[in-house]
Amino acid sequence: MTSPAPTPRSSLPMRLLYTVGLPASFAGLAYCSPPTAALTPLLLSPTIIAAWKLRRLPHQDSGNTEVTAWTYLGTSILGPAIAGAIQLSLCHVFFKLLFGSHSQSYMRELQRVTVEGLSTEAIDVRRQMAWNPRYSLILVILSYVGASAVEEGLKYFALRFAVWRAQPKQEHEYLIYAAAAGLGFGTIENILVTYASVEKGEKSSMIALMLFERAIFSATGHTIMALLTSLQSIRRDSRGENLSMWRVLARPVGYHGTWNFILFSVSAWNGNVGWIHPTDVGSIVFALTSTVALQSRAAWDFWCQLKQLELRLCE
């Protein structure tokens, strides 16, 4: 009887990352913001579940685990930094074009994560800014270009790099690397938003609601979008379909952009520039219902394509 091939040992950089880099990063977070560090395990729960499921796969079906880990970490470290720089540049350009001398006021308000402590006059000014018709155009640009196209594009390039490094032998490996990219981006984004909310003094009840939403919907949403990209990449790379980069990204950009536009619109309806979590029950229910509906539709789209491709998750 032939014994199974041994699992390859991790490289030295990967072992150093596990034993030194990650503990040091968590210690740094704990030093800067103990509450955020205490909440981080909850935000990491989707990653922990995904890693557990990956480890349960037979070695020959789990792809290159080192490439998977680097894809996750690379997307989590570089993704939000690159996306943030591009998004900030786009905001400067479009706010300047549409609002001229008032653009700096919009940029300042856009960066708020809470309205706690603002005077009634300041809140009234924000409401007037949010209800400006030109701001609706900004929401479309930010949702579909600044957020969706930029972030899905970064996850796409992370997948391309992973495929180049791993040289997949089986099609389902695309899904593994794409999920790693989506989870990496979504998880660090959740940690950064939590850190900002905690440090800005957001109410505990709102932080608890935000944690629930982000642990379940945000990381899941980023992952579903990346998985949709992976299926289109399989069609192009493995099945020989002539698909441009735009056609590969069209579905996730459409879902992600609509999801963002609805949430930004709810925030604007409540008189806020940028994203401020709603506090009234009606807005919260509408935002959550819309998110669940969109993500469910995207997940159904993924499942239908998976069956259409007759893709075996493990061979």
Automatic annotation (TrEMBL):
GO molecular function, one term: peptidase activity
Pfam families: PrsW-protease
Domain of life from the UniProt record: Eukaryota
Keyword terms: Membrane, Transmembrane, Transmembrane helix
Coiled coil: none
InterPro entries per the UniProt record, alphabetical: PrsW
Transmembrane segments: 77-99, 174-195, 207-228
Protein name listed in UniProt: Uncharacterized protein
